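User: For my dataset I need records formatted as: sequence, then structure tokens, nothing else. Please produce one.
Assistant:
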Amino acid sequence: MISNIEQEFEAIADTWSPRVVADVNGQCVKLAKLKGEFVWHDHADEDELFFVVKGELTIRYRDREDAVLKAGDLHVVPKGVQHNPIAQDECWVMLFEPAETKHTGDVIVEGTKSAAQQRAHLQTETLQSNGA
């Protein structure tokens, strides 16, 4: 399967709504458009890697200095650490995290999407490419 990052980002309609674009050894590669403030959360058992493709992202922390990322920067949020991503303007990010990682941790908000919802388009694309 070949994915074009620009086309994948163009297919994302909602902010803070990750889209799985690939699976690698039990890890998901996700893309998301971010804008505004998200929600304070953590991932108790998983680190989370943010790679900024376009724009600027601030990851706020309760117990340490904020991380300010620009296009081309990457940052790992350690497991169990409370954080809150904020993007003043639209920001495109690529995330690397285990397949079971909930994008809002144990916090449920209006935009929370299950792992199945984040990858639903993959099943549709597979069916279409198989002629179904």
